[in-house]
Amino acid sequence: MTTTIKKTFASKHWDYFILICRVLLAWQFLSFGYAKFFDDGQFGISGEELNKPIKDLSLFKVMWYLFDHNPFKIIIGICQTLCGALLLYNKTVIVGALLFLPIAFNILIMDITFMEPSMVNGFASRLSYYIFLDILILYHYKDRMLIVFKAITGNISNRFSHSYGMYLISPVLAVLLSLLPLVPVVLFYLVLEPDQMLHALGNTWHGVTKLAKHFLK
Q: Which of 96, 107, 91, 106 lies closest to 133, judged by CA?
């Protein structure tokens, strides 16, 4: 039995089946991605529905309305189109198959969460089937997948050794690093609106000192 399965996965017919899977998934993402480049594409609701109170709309209609806004819609369209193209090209099929999974899983979760019960079973089962086919594609190229997996999960360590003290203060330095993007913003508004920015900085400093005193009691 095991030998038969191995022979099946190694056969020419199985290789052709994987090619068909790639074409199917690529077509789905290329068509849905392409539709998102146009105003009358996949998302949006009717003018009549727009005039209704939000409480009278289903979650699916609310989602469809929100997803019709850019840059969200155009970015999703680009990602789906790119993924579909990568699946068709032999040298990038693994990248395309890996990219397919998070996009498809997100769509599946949103469908299960927001779609009406009468629709969710059909859409969720079809999308689950596509995810299964994508996993088969990745399995077909498992030898290369294992090489990549071993390369990125091998014995990785810091390039240099650090003292325990440096590890202990790393959370504090991480917080300071997160504040670094604020520096050019503060400088910009100090030049443009100095009074308002100095007042905002004063309030921030007052809040920080008050919080510090509370924890140091």
A: 96
Sequence-separated (6 or more) residues with CB below 8 Å from residue 99 = 79, 82, 83, 86
Collapsing DSSP states into helix, strand and coil, what is residue 36?
Answer: coil
- Cα distances from 84 to residues 24, 138, 217, in angstroms, run 9, 15, 59
The whole-model pTM stands at: 0.79
Strands (E), 86-201: none
Mention every residue, 6+ apart, whose C-beta is less than 8 A from residue 183.
none
| Residue 93 near residue 139, CB atoms below 8 Å | no
pLDDT number for residue 138: 95
| CA distance linking residue 134 with residue 127, whole number of Å | 11
Q: 18-47 burial, b for 16+ CB within 10 Å, e for fewer?
A: beebbeebbebbbebbebbeeeeebbebee
- Average pLDDT for 83-95: 95
Sign of the CA dihedral with 91 first, then 97, 102, and 106 last:
positive
* 22-54 pLDDT, tens digit each: 999 999 999 999 988 887 767 777 778 877 887
